[in-house]
Design goal:
Shape: extended
Number of strands: 3
Strand content: 15-25%
Number of helices: 3
């Protein structure tokens, strides 16, 4: 898996492309980040020969990354158009809290 950061993925045929977003800019909210950030690192796997995703082929198959990256970007952007704003503090307040032990 791509280490650290928010990730997105797309599968086309046997290919799976994982992408990690660039670092969060201090002036952006989390939703700004999801809507505006660009992907800055990719991993590519051939699920037919590597279902465990143990061999990153991004450097060996840049033509596949170049073909799939715009598709991933388009899917992600279209999903974010109508995404509701996330109020993370509200979600944290509503999250179940562990019961105290007796």
């Amino acid at each position: 898996e791509v280490e650290g950061g928010v990730q997105a993925a797309i599968r086309v045929g046997n290919w799976k492309l994982l992408a990690r977003y660039e670092s969060l800019r201090s002036e952006w909210s989390f939703m700004d980040y999801l809507r505006r950030a660009r992907f800055d690192r990719y991993e590519l796997y051939d699920l037919a020969t590597d279902p465990a995703e143990s061999t990153n082929l991004a450097e060996r198959r840049p033509e596949v990354v170049e073909r799939l990256a715009p598709k991933l970007e388009a899917v992600h952007r279209s999903a974010m158009v109508d995404a509701p704003p996330w109020d993370l503090e509200h979600l944290r307040r509503r999250a179940p809290r562990p019961s105290p032990r007796r």
